[in-house]
Amino acid sequence: MHILVTGAAGFIGSSLSLRLLERGDRVVGLDNLNDYYDVSLKEARLARLRAFPRFIFEKIDIVEREAMARLFSAQRFDAVMHLAAQAGVRYSIENPAAYVDTNLLGFGNALEGARRSGVGHFVYASSSSVYGANARLPFAEDDSVDHPVSLYAATKKANELMAHSYAHLYRLPCTGLRFFTVYGPWGRPDMALFKFTRGILAGDAIPVFNRGEMVRDFTYVDDIVEGVIRVMDRPAQADPAWSALAPRPSSSDAPYRIYNIGNNQPVKLMRYIEVLEQCLGQKAKLDLLPLQAGDVPATIADVSRLEQAVGFAPTTRIETGIARFVEWYRSYYRV
Q1: CA atoms within a 13 Å half-sphere pointing along the CA-CB vector of 205
Q2: Distance between CA atoms of 13 and 298, rounded to whole angstroms?
Q3: Where are the beta strands (DSSP E) in the chain?
Q4: Is 259 in the active site?
Q5: Is the backbone of residue 4 left (phi > 0), alpha (psi -120 to 50) or beta?
Q6: pLDDT tens digits, residue range 135-161?
Q7: Whose CA, among 4, 8, 31, 75, lies 20 to 30 Å from 125?
Q8: Whole-structure pTM value
Q9: Of 124, 131, 152, 259, catalytic
């Protein structure tokens, strides 16, 4: 297959691209290499991909409409995995414009390019953040997601709506994947596991929000990649059981689907830190803080729809995943 991966220098994008290349696909990786976090880490991820002759890198910002149009007009992709986005719940409070530009305008440019070039399947990253103020657990795809508690979450919900309109109007097969707290080697420095590891090794107090009373469905990156590939290989189709009298948000009479990808093994934040301490061989100093704006106390994924559709559900336990992250971190940073 000939596949476009946007955000290819990112955490998930680089891991996905590597797996696609290893199985023999041709991959065009797109990224703008912005400085939201350490660009050298992004370059190191790309270096792994450049070793494959079937990989081509395009330095493009998805908000650049003409550049995106040229990319899609120059070649036809069997599938697009759209991961490029401005990430982070907390940063959306500080810099909302970045989310409007990248996650709305940029997403629209990617959709339009896919539509005009006849892409076979447009798959994109949504987020567990869309569940917002919904407190019923586990989160299921047909739950209400009309009350986001961060702009980041609102843009991801908007992406799902935009994708549905393209699936309906142009019959572009679109599948949205709601990722649940992804972690693992080559992760993002702004995420908890990275911050905790750096802080513990430095002997600094680590910030623990909601005084540790948090539950997360931590999902290992390799499980995310496996789920993405299985979904990508099965283009969305119209749901014959869908009814306009009782519409299900997760499907449609258009070629459109929404799936959760989470570990379905909720873990208390303090247990997560405890496992990290064991892997590092060092105790953490905790700075217990209140719940931060934009956060939710608990996320748990119902993954039964994903399992039914593609025969896969994540299984990696945090004891395994955190150990692999620590091994990578010590090797990469030589600590």
Answers
A1: 7
A2: 26
A3: 2-6, 26-31, 55-59, 79-82, 122-127, 174-179, 182-183, 205-208, 215-216, 219-220, 256-261, 267-268, 285-288
A4: no
A5: beta
A6: 899 999 999 999 999 999 999 999 999
A7: 75
A8: 0.95
A9: 152
